[in-house]
Amino acid sequence: MASDNRGLVLNRLEHVDMIFELRHQYCDARLIQNIGENGWTHPWRYFDALMHYLLLTCFDLLGQPSEWVPFSEWLISSKKASEREVVVSSVQTGSNPIEISRHFNDAYQAAYGVRTSFNNFVLKILTDEERAELYFNIQIVRGVMGGDPNTSYPGLGYIDAERKNLISYLVFATNLLIAL
Fold first, then answer.
1. Contact of 39 with 152, CB cutoff 8 Å
2. What's the rounded Cα separation, in Å, for the pair 124 and 167?
3. Among 62, 57, 33, which Cα is nearest to 46's?
4. φ and ψ at 33, to 5 degrees?
5. Which one, out of 46, 117, 125, 126, has a CA that is 20 to 30 A from the CA of 99?
6. Are the C-beta atoms of residues 168 and 176 closer than 8 Å to each other?
7. DSSP for 108-157, written as a single string
8. What is d(CA 53, CA 15) in angstroms, rounded to the nearest whole number?
9. Which helix (H) or strand (E) holds 41?
10. Could you give the CA distance from residue 100 to residue 110 in angstroms, rounded to a whole number?
């Protein structure tokens, strides 16, 4: 984990706690808003999504390698020159600038991207017991359009150790929450 990430994680957890304390102000059914054929919504959904996003970004921060750098720094850092040389030597002859850019981005993401950080945190940093508890506590649910608005229907159910798509789902969920 990058050395300054501990403070960032603690800060995020503090914000999650502050947001969670607001929940009592939203326990009012009168706040439910009908949004036509798409069903209904409630203002708490945005706070709930923000809490989940902040928690998921902790996975990213906790799983980052200690030598993590942002892409813009990776491109110019003398400490990362050997990594870039490997990428340069693997560029296919005749590649256009866009393909080369993608190649550099793909190499960076493989070493330092969110998916790599999530994998590292879940598979290498968490103990077997912590990982089992994480898997047990993640339940994926979805609402059904046209269904009872007060009901959630199981989507994928509980995630267990055999599911190969946990990390992909968590990365997807983080990106989905960014889009809300």
1. no
2. 13
3. 33
4. -115, 130
5. 117
6. no
7. HHHHHSHHHHHHIIIIIIS-HHHHHHHHHH-EEEE--TTS-TT--EEEEE
8. 11
9. strand 40-41
10. 15
d(CA 139, CA 154): 8
Task: Return d(Cα 116, Cα 82) in angstroms, integer.
Answer: 20
Q: Please give the model's pTM, rounded to 2 decimal places.
A: 0.69
Which residues does 3 contact at the CB level (< 8 Å), separation at least 6?
66
Closest CA to 44 of 13, 16, 22: 22
117 CB burial (10 A radius; 0-12, 13-18, 19+): buried
Joined tokens for residue 95: 């590649």
